[in-house]
UniProtKB/TrEMBL annotation, chain A:
This is ABC transporter permease. InterPro entries: MetI-like, MetI-like_sf. PROSITE patterns: ABC_TM1. The chain crosses the membrane at residues 17-42, 78-101, 108-128, 161-183, 204-229, 259-284. One of its GO terms (biological process) is transmembrane transport.
TrEMBL record, chain B:
The keyword ATP-binding applies. Gene3D superfamilies: P-loop containing nucleotide triphosphate hydrolases. It comes from the Bacteria. Residues 7-239 form the ABC transporter domain. GO terms for molecular function: ATP binding; ATP hydrolysis activity. It holds the Pfam family ABC_tran. Keywords: ATP-binding, Nucleotide-binding, Transport. This is ABC transporter ATP-binding protein.
Length: 290, 358
């Protein structure tokens, strides 16, 4: 009995030591900064100065200005669209890589292929869309030469569409990965059993494969959501400043030293992300699945 | 018993690249029969089952079921049930949803109420009443096995294929499920084909036992026939009940490590092997002068099995010899480890295989 107690004591001591680095790191770089942002959002901002006198002025300004609320809705709209497009493009890809490809080696190779664009920098990946989508870009040239169009399509670049195309390409792999992982863990015998019991492909997909891949969809959706909601570079580079996401607002506000307003937007963004993640986590019990 | 062949295999061959998984397998199975397939892993027994189920297409040969050639009929239209080795339950569904899956999502055309009635009936049949709403990760291994069985039986198949159904269960549960499986089968009057790597299971459960080796059916017979008259040295080996000696069969006598013994009734085989059942071996002190064949061996250890004791001897050159003493025949003799003894047996009871035999 005595020895059990000492082992437990020793273990709890070890546990404490193992926890310390994480706690220190998270406090310094997560808890304190967030508290700071919330605090600064109530500071008083004048044109050239900022003081810590508490005020709701910045918050009022955010919710009464069409620019700011409009950017909130744009962010949410783009997020939902990109979430849908990454899912629509990503799920069939994941289905192929994770389930239809029988060789583990080949499916690993295919996943690596999906990641190849990440070997270049984020900005280059985004900017590479300009010569693709532009008025004199690759797509227009090809379509003109083929005679499919007479006039170049101008809606391709510096519009919401180009932002959506760019984001879909960049974030799709974060949807593919988790879904392919969940699909690859499905016991093939289960699918065979369902077939033996007389279920057709549609039934097998909707009743067996899709429900079992749902945790992957949720994880992928969380990845994509977190990244898209905080985006500013893709919209900055591909929208010609026409699409202003909350991220872009933060960048401009910080650029003009409007710390209080930047903090308000930061807090709003953090709350939106929190709600989104909490919502996704309600769909499946990830603790049980992973 | 085999009056009406419900199911027939004709020269079925299946290859995976260069590997011949099934070689010209021919087999007839009657209605209401329990057939067990015995063979080491890689002997093709699972392939055979998968070909019958329709998960694999054979390269040549025909599969007949209920008077119909089903070689090219897809799995779910064959009316043959398959119970998977690891049960393959749908992990996100409850017990009753699993059992009713085929009825709900297949082509049964039953109403929801009928599906539920039949699923409940099947759950009752396998003794899981009250667990309908449980998730399949909330029940034990034995219960999962029953769910897998109920799910297959709910489709009312005429033939049920079981791929090592007891392999994932612990020993205790395994023997209980053995009785259960037989009882369920007898109640429904369905033919069961049961694949196993365990000779005890194969002999205990099958009305007939089919022994496979390297893709070939090497013996078919009742458990008694297979046990008493193994068709080849390989069968004797798989049964795990015989001490096997290499040697030479010539002119009605067999010469091996134990000397020369008369072998009047030998079975034809591609090599000369002398087989003595574990429980036919007698142990004598090393000074004894027995009449029949005798072999000096060192006692290693014994194993208590409840109804009998297994004694392990080493006859030199790492040749192990096992001797089983049934406790119903009296208290066991006590042997000294590392002591030499003389092992003997009645040559009448030995089984001899040889190239020379007729």
């Amino acid at each position: 009995m005595t020895s059990t107690v000492t082992i437990q004591q020793r273990q709890s001591k070890v546990t404490r030591w193992l926890l310390i680095p994480g706690i220190v790191w998270m406090s310094l770089f997560l808890v304190v900064p967030i508290a700071m942002i919330v605090y600064v959002s109530f500071w008083t901002q004048t044109t050239f100065n900022i003081s810590s006198d508490p005020t709701l002025a910045s918050w009022k300004q955010f919710f009464t200005s069409d620019t700011y609320t409009g950017s909130l809705w744009t962010t949410i709209r783009i997020w939902l669209i990109v979430l849908a497009t990454t899912f629509i493009v990503g799920y069939p890809t994941a289905l192929f890589v994770g389930l239809f490809v029988k060789s583990k080696t080949l499916s690993t190779v295919l996943l690596v292929v999906c990641v190849i664009p990440f070997w270049t920098s984020f900005l280059i990946r985004v900017l590479a869309w300009r010569p693709m989508l532009g008025k004199e870009g690759a797509i227009n040239i090809v379509l003109l030469h083929l005679g499919i169009i007479q006039q170049p399509i101008e809606v391709l670049l510096f519009t919401e569409l180009s932002v959506i195309i760019g984001m879909t390409q960049i974030y799709c792999v974060f949807m593919v990965g988790p879904i392919a992982f969940m699909l690859s863990r499905i016991d093939r015998n289960i699918i065979e059993a369902a077939r033996d019991l007389g279920a057709g492909f549609g039934r097998i997909f909707w009743k067996i494969i899709f429900p079992l891949s749902l945790p992957g969809v949720v994880v992928g959706a969380i990845f994509v959501s977190v990244m898209v909601l905080g985006e500013f570079a893709t919209s900055g580079a591909l929208s010609g400043r026409k699409v202003n996401l909350l991220g872009n607002i933060i960048v401009t506000q910080v650029g003009s030293l409007k710390w209080a307003m930047a903090s308000v937007v930061g807090v709003v963004l953090t709350i939106v992300m929190g709600i989104v993640i909490a919502g996704f986590l309600r769909i499946v019990d990830l603790k049980r699945e992973l | 018993m085999v009056d009406t062949a419900v199911f027939r295999l004709e020269g079925v061959t299946k290859r995976y690249g260069d590997l011949v998984a099934l070689n010209n397998a021919t087999l007839e199975v009657g209605a209401n029969e329990y057939l067990s397939f015995l063979g080491p892993s890689g002997s093709g027994k699972t392939t055979l089952l998968r070909v019958i189920a329709g998960f694999e297409a054979p390269e040549s040969g025909r599969v007949h079921f209920e008077g119909r050639d089903i070689t090219n009929v897809p799995a779910h239209e064959r009316g043959i049930g398959f119970v998977f080795q690891n049960f393959a339950l749908f992990p996100h569904l409850t017990v009753i949803q699993n059992v009713g899956f085929g009825l709900t999502h297949g082509k049964s055309g039953l109403s929801a109420a009928e599906v539920e009635r039949r699923a409940v009936e099947m759950i009752e049949l396998v003794g899981l009443s009250g667990m309908e709403g449980r998730g399949v990760d909330q029940i034990s291994g034995g219960q999962r096995q029953r769910v897998a069985l109920a799910r297959t039986l709910a489709m009312k198949p005429k033939l049920v294929l079981l791929d090592e159904p007891l392999g994932a269960l612990d020993a205790n549960l395994r023997s209980r499920m053995r009785n259960e499986l037989r009882a369920i089968r007898e109640r429904l009057g369905v033919t069961f084909l049961h694949v196993t790597g365990s000779e005890t299971e194969a002999l205990a459960m099958g009305d007939r036992v089919v022994v496979l080796d390297r893709g070939t059916i090497i013996q078919t017979g009742t458990p008694g026939e297979v046990y008493d008259r193994p068709a080849s040295p390989d069968v004797a080996h798989f049964l795990n009940r015989f001490n096997l000696f290499d040697g030479q069969l010539a002119k009605g006598s067999f010469t091996g490590a134990f000397g020369t013994a008369p072998a009047p009734r030998a079975t034809r085989a591609d090599r000369d092997v002398y087989a003595v059942r574990y429980d036919r071996v007698k142990v004598l002190p090393v000074s004894a002068k027995p009449e029949g064949p005798a072999l000096k061996a060192t006692f290693i250890a014994s194993e208590y099995l409840g109804s009998s004791i297994m004694n392990f001897f080493d006859a030199g050159h790492g040749h192990p010899i096992e001797m089983e003493h049934h406790l119903s025949l009296g208290a066991p003799d006590i042997y000294e480890p590392r002591q030499d003894y003389l092992l003997t047996w009645n040559p009448e009871q030995a089984i001899v295989f040889g190239r020379e035999a007729v």
